[in-house]
């Protein structure tokens, strides 16, 4: 069987080709799946999609009409997939349930440290041979308090790093993680976490119940000199409310690897285009904000694991097997 893989980065291509070698042919394309590109999949029974693919109803209908029966998404999150429509169209959809949590956890701390120690500003200055220290003062993390929203595998890895820094640990989740408790984490109500934490990091999935979890009220609760980090999903943060808070001179800084309106922006080169997203444009003007392009997961270790799991999902589909990665019930064995 030949598989069409959408949104393949140059770094990913050899990993994908190696994962499928000897079993299935795979055609890698760098275009991302959306309404304009869905027709490319005509004739492909199985496709693989990237984290920012548009798998809404209209795209799924185009895929099904073109003969696609199986979609293997190369990511854990699936807020971009209309699962109800997929089930009505008898499409089988699988994802990557888990991959290296350290990739995201370590990057979240990279963002926090870059904000705290003014790394971007310092690097830009020294490129111009400006070696002044004015405006670059940061703070020790030891003895300060970190608030971890979501203490699953990634949140736990993030917490272990915070424990290594010697920080006080606050957590919020629907289910407590015993490993985090053993590190000294104290689980509290969300409002208390926002009030007490010097660093707040988000590690929950984007669901209807978590959309704009960090809204104007949550931001008002945060300390004026707190740091906010989001390496999970952009929709967790109400960006307009965040801009208002930053404009008022509050928060020590913000590190964002995701943005709620990133579709059509992130993973593309927009350097020569006119920026039409006024909220993102305003956000980028603040000197205490670091924005990266949804790259927290992007390590060789994590991407290899993601690709290998995707290949395994394809094998399971061909064999008529189900696994914990299947989001929409698999078709009966053929």
Automatic annotation (TrEMBL):
Pfam families associated with the record: 2-Hacid_dh, 2-Hacid_dh_C
Keyword NAD among UniProt keywords: yes
Domain of life: Bacteria
Residue ranges of every copy of the D-isomer specific 2-hydroxyacid dehydrogenase NAD-binding domain listed in the record: 110-296
D-isomer specific 2-hydroxyacid dehydrogenase catalytic domain segment(s): 8-327
Keywords assigned: NAD, Oxidoreductase
PROSITE patterns in the record: D_2_HYDROXYACID_DH_1 (PS00065), D_2_HYDROXYACID_DH_2 (PS00670), D_2_HYDROXYACID_DH_3 (PS00671)
InterPro entries reported for this sequence: D-isomer_2_OHA_DH_cat_dom, D-isomer_DH_CS, D-isomer_DH_CS1, D-isomer_DH_NAD-bd, D-LDH-like, NAD(P)-bd_dom_sf
GO MF, one example: D-lactate dehydrogenase (NAD+) activity
Homology family: Belongs to the D-isomer specific 2-hydroxyacid dehydrogenase family.
Record PANTHER family: 2-HYDROXYACID DEHYDROGENASE HOMOLOG 1-RELATED
Protein name: 2-hydroxyacid dehydrogenase
Lineage, broadest ranks: Bacteria, Bacillati, Actinomycetota, Actinomycetes, Kitasatosporales
């Amino acid at each position: 069987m030949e598989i069409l893989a959408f949104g393949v980065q140059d770094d990913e291509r050899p990993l994908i080709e190696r994962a499928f070698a000897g079993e299935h042919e795979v055609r890698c394309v760098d275009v991302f799946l959306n309404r304009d590109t869905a027709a490319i999949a005509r004739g492909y029974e199985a496709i693989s999609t990237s984290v920012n693919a548009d798998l809404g109803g209209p795209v799924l209908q185009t895929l099904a009409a073109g003969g696609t029966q199986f979609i293997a998404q190369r990511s854990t999150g699936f807020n971009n997939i209309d699962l109800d429509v997929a089930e009505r169209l008898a499409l089988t959809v699988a994802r990557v349930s888990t991959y290296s949590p350290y990739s995201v956890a370590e990057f979240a701390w990279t963002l926090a440290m870059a904000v705290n120690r003014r790394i971007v500003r310092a690097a830009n200055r020294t490129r111009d041979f400006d070696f002044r220290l004015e405006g670059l003062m940061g703070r020790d993390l030891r003895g300060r308090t970190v608030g971890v929203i979501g203490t699953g595998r990634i949140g736990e890895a993030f917490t272990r790093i915070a424990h290594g820094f010697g920080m006080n640990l606050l957590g919020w989740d629907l289910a407590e993680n015993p490993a985090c408790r053993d590190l000294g984490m104290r689980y509290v109500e969300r409002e208390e976490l926002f009030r007490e934490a010097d660093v707040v990091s988000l590690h929950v999935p984007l669901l209807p119940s978590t959309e704009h979890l960090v809204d104007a009220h949550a931001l008002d609760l945060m300390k004026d000199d707190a740091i906010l980090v989001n390496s999970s999903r952009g929709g967790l943060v109400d960006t307009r409310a965040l801009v208002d808070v930053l404009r008022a001179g509050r928060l020590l800084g913000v590190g964002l690897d995701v943005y709620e309106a990133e579709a059509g922006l992130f993973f593309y080169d927009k350097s020569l285009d006119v920026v039409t997203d006024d909220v993102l444009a305003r956000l980028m003007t603040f000197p205490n904000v670091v924005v990266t392009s949804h790259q927290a997961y992007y390590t060789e270790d994590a991407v290899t694991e993601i690709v290998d799991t995707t290949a395994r999902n394809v094998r399971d589909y061909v064999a008529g097997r189900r696994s914990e990665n299947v989001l929409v019930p698999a078709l009966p064995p053929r």
